[in-house]
Amino acid sequence: MKKLLDDPAEAVTDALQGLAAAHPDLLTVHHDPTYVQRKGGTPPGHVGVVSGGGSGHEPLHTGFVGSGMLDAAVPGAVFTSPTADQVAAALKAADGGAGVLAVVKNYTGDVLNFETAVELAEIDGVRVESVLVNDDVAVEDSMYTAGRRGVAGTLFVEKVAGAAAARGDSLAGVAEVARRAVARVRTMGVALTACTVPHVGRPSFDLPDDEVEIGIGIHGEPGRHRIPASGARDIATRLIDAVLDDLGTTGGEQVLLFVNGMGGTPLSELYGTYARAREVVEARGVEVVRSLVGSYVTSLEMQGASVTVAVLDDELTELWDAPVRTAALAW
Amino acid sequence: MKKLLDDPAEAVTDALQGLAAAHPDLLTVHHDPTYVQRKGGTPPGHVGVVSGGGSGHEPLHTGFVGSGMLDAAVPGAVFTSPTADQVAAALKAADGGAGVLAVVKNYTGDVLNFETAVELAEIDGVRVESVLVNDDVAVEDSMYTAGRRGVAGTLFVEKVAGAAAARGDSLAGVAEVARRAVARVRTMGVALTACTVPHVGRPSFDLPDDEVEIGIGIHGEPGRHRIPASGARDIATRLIDAVLDDLGTTGGEQVLLFVNGMGGTPLSELYGTYARAREVVEARGVEVVRSLVGSYVTSLEMQGASVTVAVLDDELTELWDAPVRTAALAW
């Protein structure tokens, strides 16, 4: 294992130190317990939006802390849920008096720890609504969770919920927007290589040089099946067909198309895959009106990508377009 | 070789198709010859800023086309200079009546083809100033060029030159800013793995599992030496010491610290490396006042990073801070 780090046990701490030092205008890193908070805190009277989960998926979630997206993010160890104490501290810190929305990816550990954290925060008088993201169409259950996994679609949910909070929606309103986003977003991914968790020191699975894994999760957990390594067109077709079938598009929808890199794939390949994916979407009569291409929800240095489609309506489009200023997403 | 692409010979074209489709608000891709132009063209009366070079370093340069940075970018084949015809077409297209600044990375092919292109554009009445970027302190000559290579510091030069053009500076003024930026920016990199050029199909060099290459170029060309794989602290110290020695900092300077990923390195490792690099910079009495962390000047899927230090003055800081809106850099 060659990685740009020192003690694997300190990898998350070291990265957070760098994040804090590089972005003092955007965020603050708190310790004991660890969470990342928007600089200056949640604007008074606005709903706070909080997410979190295992590290190793950067920039998700810490890179999305700032104005117009997350008010706080809670990083666990690599591929390990944050503790309930961490999450509770972030929920309390993010309360600007109008309550807090917790965006939770559907993994068993995250779900349990967020549930406990919400109870702890509510004891302290913080109103919390939770929304569960489960956009991965690849498998119904996986080694990390019962039910569908939450993957790259989480970015969409966090963006529109953050924008709803920024414009002053109530807690019920922000939660409604987030749940609508969850209902309308689906994702499927492919891995070309495995990744290596620093404190494990060896690849998380074996993938032959001539095969790819369709339907991979963001921790390297198995997907639907392995196929001989094909090309961007074949892979994009498989992924988009699965996503659109699950969404039940019939043609005429307006969508966001998001091609996400798993961490080790060059941006040029992501744009090429986006071109192929878009052709498949359009061939099914669906109109791509918004786009995002880049490595935003990753699995360490894994090579691969996921495609996410979100069916927009006027309000979700407006919320997607609303200003955002974070370390990883800004417009 | 497993990559998310179809015909390797079409990889650049496919990526440009995706870039154009994903960012219709920012840019337009022209064909025959190929170049990428800012949407709507250079504002009349403003200097155009143009750069280009081999593909495989994305988002450099095409991802920096938009407002406040590049008016046009010219992508060659992977690791291959664009032709003089391509560059000349971009120079002519980017002339808004106030002339054009060409930002050229110091590689023999780029230098020759840009020189020819400038002559062609001048025949057509376009005034052009050129600035050569040669920020890599690792080696004096390399397999691709005589003199120092142009690497990640190019981003800094393009950003401040673009900002100078956006505020309405004359061609001489924009060129002066760019040359001052070149004089004040230095970079050195490290590779943990090689990369594979699509149409070659095998890694560009061999690097044992327990060694890293210090002073690597952005095409995988050799650097200063190989060392046993160490940690982020050791590597950051080696790179920063070489960069600051070359800059001749004596303490008290205010700098931009930019940690750049080579394409296959996770963002978390880049932030951890940034933290270590910053400690070394500060221990030498130099103050980090601006920061950038991410994979902006890459070598396909190579794992590794470079550190860039730019010594700021008030004007360069103001130009760095000025608004920018491109696919890869926005604030």
Explain how this protein is built.
Chains A, B: Keywords: Kinase, Transferase. Chains A, B: Residues 7-331 form the DhaK domain. Chains A, B: GO terms for molecular function: glycerone kinase activity. Two copies of one chain form a homodimer. The first copy, chain A, is α/β, with parallel strands linked by helices. Helix content of chain A is 32%, strand content 24%. Chain A has helices at residues 11-22, 84-93, 108-123, 153-166, 171-184, 232-247, 267-283, 314-321; strands at 27-30, 35-38, 48-55, 66-67, 72-78, 100-105, 128-133, 185-191, 211-214, 225-228, 254-261, 287-294, 304-311, 325-326. In chain A, the strands form three sheets. In chain A, strands 1-2-5-3-6-7 form a six-stranded mixed sheet, with helices on both faces. In chain A, helix 4 runs antiparallel to helix 5 (171-184). The mean pLDDT of chain A is 96. At the A-B interface, helix 1, helix 6, helix 7 and strand 12 of A face helix 1, helix 6, helix 7 and strand 12 of B.
Nearest-angstrom radius of gyration of chain A?
19 Å
How would you sum up the major sheet of chain A?
6 strands, mixed
The CATH topology of the largest domain in chain A, please?
A: Rossmann fold
**Which strand order does the major sheet of chain A show?**
1-2-5-3-6-7
- Name the chain pair with the biggest interface and residue counts per chain: A-B, 65 and 65 residues
Q: In DSSP terms, counting alpha (H) and pi (I) runs of 4 or more, how many helices of chain A?
A: 8
| Assembly of the depicted chains | homodimer
Number-wise, the strands of chain A total 14
Q: How many discrete structural domains of chain A?
A: 2
Proportion of residues in extended strands of chain A: 15-25%
Helicity of chain A, as a percent range? 25-40%
Residue runs with pLDDT of under 50 for 5 or more positions of chain A: none
